[in-house]
Amino acid sequence: xxxxxxxxxxxxxxxxxxxxxxxxxxxxxxxxxxxxxxxxxxxxxxxxxxxxxxxxxxxxxxxxxxxxxxxxxxxxxxxxxxxxxxxxxxxxxxxxxxxxxxxxxxxxxxxxxxxxxxxxxxxxxxxxxxxxxxxxxxxxxxxxxxxxxxxxxxxxxxxxxxxxxxxxxxxxxxxxxxxxxxxxxxxxxxxxxxxxxxxxxxxxxxxxxxxxxxxxxxxxxxxxxxxxxxxxxxxxxxxxxxxxxxxxxxxxxxxxxxxxxxxxxxxxxxxxxxxxxxxxxxxxxxxxxxxxxxxxxxxxxxxxxxxxxxxxxxxxxxxxxxxxxxxxxxxxxxxxxxxxxxxxxxxxxxxxxxxxxxxxxxxxxxxxxxxxxxxxxxxxxxxxxxxxxxxxxxxxxxxxxxxxxxxxxxxxxxxxxxxxxxxxxxxxxxxxxxxxxxxxxxxxxxxxxxxxxxxxxx
Length: 458
Known about the structure:
Layout: E1 2-3, H1 57-68, E2 87-93, H2 99-114, E3 118-120, E4 128-133, H3 135-141, E5 145-151, H4 156-161, E6 179-184, H5 189-204, H6 229-238, H7 249-263, H8 280-290, H9 296-312, H10 318-331, H11 336-351, H12 357-373, H13 377-394, H14 397-413, H15 417-435, H16 438-457
Parallel strand pairs: 2-3, 2-4, 4-6
Antiparallel strand pairs: 1-5, 5-6
């Protein structure tokens, strides 16, 4: 299940120093560039393989067990379940035009990187049924969920019919034969792709998410938007010939060291100690801090609670960094000095972690937007330039477009108007893929233009 992102794109929330001022798509209407010409085609990333996991096999094995034998709710799963035999995928409903290409790329990655026997079929029964439905239908079913996967059904109609009769209970499965993935049809191309990646992977493999994983999409912070090398390793392990549906956690644990030694020889080294569990009250604090519920005072208090809890738990990695990121988001309007210090600490931690580069890029986006709003064109430009290669490697078009728009405004602020115009033009194909509609693209462009306008007045 992919949650409605706590981050969204997270580029512009509270990025001006004036108390209570949060940049949103409804502000600065007079500066909305309604006349910009948008390209008909989207920019797309090519088919590339993700870098392999950087952690030890002992750590990967622990993560595999926690991902595979628990649900996101914390409920235990008694046995391993997977598809036995070739896996087929079928799409239905109002399939967005971008989905065919992105699904084809994804299935090729599954074959190349995870060694899966998987292919798409045009019709008939399929192992994984991907149905595109209206976003409002999903929101009416699960308010905070962007897309999700369920067992034993092949359509939205079957899902609705089975909601109250035990059909959808993952814990009662003995083997996976038929699952459905439900994705909104009326979202941006990137959001469709993100759902395809996480939900199709969960349809075949682990059903849990872990906040401590910086190198995985199986993490509710949603920083990673496409499957990583770690994720492909997890799926390759899931379908190793040494495993089968029906195995208990103890049986799987006994076979994992041999499997991982075979498929990931670079991971045969000493790893870190076992991580501590993530308490529910820290998750609640994070969700409050970065969510839409509560007022600004409550959200800031929750962010500070998250940081305090992280220290009390002795965390030094991704969960501490994410707590600082939340604190930065929540204090940038009211207490810029605290916010910048929090962002800098989050970035420092993320840059020290395996797979943490894209997390640090989100931090840099916040810092670049703040620099632009203060009129610090040199810092905004430096941050955008160092971050864009990381974002390209992570295939996040929305963040790429936002960074390019920040870069364009910073160049214009320095009087480099020709260079700024070229960057703006280059950003639009990424914006169309990442943000979706013309209205969304223009609104995001207006937000960043408004920051530069404030910066020019500083």
